């Protein structure tokens, strides 16, 4: 340890130097404050023993300069003084002195004071080094955050705004948002959006948004169905994210006519279909596990399809909204959210966020707050229909027995096959929806004889699909025939699906039941297809889809 002795008396310097060197300290001597400052510039000094009365620059003048030179690291100054008055002691401490010792020196006391201040200096040096390292790492993190923010901005740059259809609000709990909201229009005019909530929040949670956004935008531009997007996202996130991370998500497609919605819901809170006054029309519950959990062969792509009208709005939010806590630890909850939606006409996302924050008071935001409202209105196609269509007519026919109904997904394979034909791929989402709805109607209600009214009960979806699984497992003999004919002259696809079930009566009463949101989907099929017709037995449906008409 290096000690600087500053005293104009040569004898005092020699005495202190000899005394300290016996204790194995390295000692430097100066005879005034100015010389002491020069030594500080060239040597790493740990303690300064400073006389008060000296020529050129005395101790009172030198002390503050020494402290200024030391900067943030503690450099102890022990005044050596023969002064006895109280005011001199106070001045020594006022100008920067940390301690003092009287002349003549007491070796034991001096040694004890040096050791005590040496410990404090070491702690100060360690603290300063840690602070310097923290500052360095902070600056590194700041630069890395700037880079990541730039990457995120570019990754989400292609997102367009559709204020007439959708408004949304994202409020992250930290610098990076673990929630994401993506939206785009397909070439046929359908409006797609994805609200996702990754496990946790901050940078770690936000990382998944990069591949998810790329997959979403790419697939929407290809006109892929909502189920296809869900499968691709699940596969990518399952491979990318660690086992404890996943993404609760709602993927929505609003038809270009604004009359129907297709939805894949996994792990998010309930969605609400409301009217312009905020009155609840329908609660749409999550049907699947979150994205990134299940393997490809376990993943379920089943969609919900329901009709909507221009005066209706679809509200979707992440759990940060309903789990926001008040200062008393009370959660905001679904009941308050429903009550808020009904409290005013055409409520906005900003008004909802404002109410939630007012409820939370001064409590720190614990999770990302995200909410979106979709107005169920029509939108125009982005581009015209493709000019080139295949000139080759074809017929495809599939006959499915009970075993194949249990183990295959004929709709997906058939849509994949049709999408390879020139001019048809842009209609993939519509064709998938058409075939999926018709096939599931034939299987669920025709072959299995299930009643969709079950879905209207509390936890009805779970009960319905549990019953479906058990009945399908016991199915022994059944037949569904799917036929597709393409007419290049008319630019039309003719679909025919026939099942071996008992069909339904074509009475007005049963027709009304079919058109229920959970019925055999007659209204939804009519929304998509140019025409839909049933045979008299009610177990065969023919649908004509025009490739030149506007997408719904």
TrEMBL record:
Residues 2-118 form the Response regulatory domain. It comes from the Bacteria. This is Fused response regulator/phosphatase. The keyword Hydrolase applies. The keyword Nucleotide-binding does not apply. The modification 4-aspartylphosphate is found at residue 51. It comes from Pseudoalteromonas maricaloris. Keywords: Hydrolase, Phosphoprotein. Gene3D superfamilies: 3.40.50.2300, Histidine kinase-like ATPase, C-terminal domain (3.30.565.10), PPM-type phosphatase domain (3.60.40.10). One of its GO terms (biological process) is phosphorelay signal transduction system. InterPro entries: Bact_Sigma-Reg, CheY-like_superfamily, HATPase_C_sf, HATPase_dom, PPM-type-like_dom_sf, PPM-type_phosphatase-like_dom, Sig_transdc_resp-reg_receiver. PROSITE patterns: RESPONSE_REGULATORY (PS50110). SMART domains: PP2C_SIG, REC. Coiled coil: none annotated.
